[in-house]
Amino acid sequence: MAWKAFHNDEIDVDINYKPLNQIEEEEIIELHQLHDDSTAEMFDRQSDDNDVKSKLLEDSQETFTVDEAINHIGFGPFQILIMALIGMCSMADAMEVMMLSIIAPELRCIWKLPRWQEALITTVVFVGQFFGAAIWGKFCDKFGRKTGLVACSVWLLYYGFLSSISPTYVWFLCMRMLAGFGVVGGNQGNTLVSEFVPSKVRGKCLAVMGSFFAIGSIGIALLALVTMSTLGWRWMLALSGIPLAGFICLSWWLPESARFCMLCGNEAEAYKTLQKVARMNKKSLLPGRLKKIVVAVSMSF
């Protein structure tokens, strides 16, 4: 071991020098660990500073909610198109329900049914609606308004067509009950419309949506007038699915609810949807970023 004395008038220190080839491996490892710890601490401090700066930057930006954006954009061509498109679903739902009063007496004569079996043709549809209401509601809350609306439309079109080729009374009852299960899912259309129209005209728009149900009711009566005496009840059932087929073919244009996207944490998709609404209405979107929706959960005992 080499020793060297350093002398100064004010300081008298003995410094212990070791040649590099005599430094033990443990001492080198300890030096490296000390350097790594200090470097990691420095990076952690820088990362915390960056997080604070990012948080301050976000807080300084203007924010707006989905409802504020829709109210700012206003009512325009986008809302008219979405109401017309979803109105096709309401028309189809009306046809499926109102045709029961037309087709039940016809089937009673063809299949020689007693009165209670004729009444059962109508009853099973509402039984299907009873079970479908809660299921379609949970489905749309989990997978989206658009997805649920398209899914129930495909379901209704499929089982509505199978009803038209039913060979027996029992088979027909089963198909009509499954069709009723799909009919009730069409109510999600009104939910989707209400989330895309400004609050000041929301009541009027939903009232207008009810008129599509009336149009469907009139449509099935006219269709029966043309087909029942010529083509028969099976053709009437098959042709009543035309509005649904049209909706399904055009559903690619239908956007998902921006509010639903925000509830799912998909801010980018929600902003993209609002940009589409603003572009079609020839309006500008509010500056800033979307404000996250906070859902309050209440517990009752």
Derived structural class: mainly alpha
Indicate the mean pLDDT.
78
Indicate the percent of residues in helices. 55-70%
Strand and helix order? EEHEHHHHHHHHHHHHE
Estimate what percentage of residues fall within beta strands: 5-15%
Reading side by side through the largest sheet, how are the strands ordered?
1-2
**Overall 3D geometry?**
elongated
Q: Output the radius of gyration.
A: 34 Å
Topology, number of strands? 4
- Uncertain stretches of 5 or more adjacent residues: 1-15, 52-60, 296-301
Could you tell me how far the N terminus lies from the C terminus, measured between alpha carbons in angstroms?
A: 79 Å
Number of helical stretches of at least 4 residues: 13
Mind sketching the topology for me?
Blueprint: E1 2-7, E2 12-17, H1 25-60, E3 63-64, H2 66-73, H3 77-98, H4 100-110, H5 115-143, H6 145-164, H7 169-183, H8 188-194, H9 202-227, H10 233-239, H11 242-250, H12 258-263, H13 267-280, E4 289-290
Parallel strand pairs: 3-4
Antiparallel strand pairs: 1-2
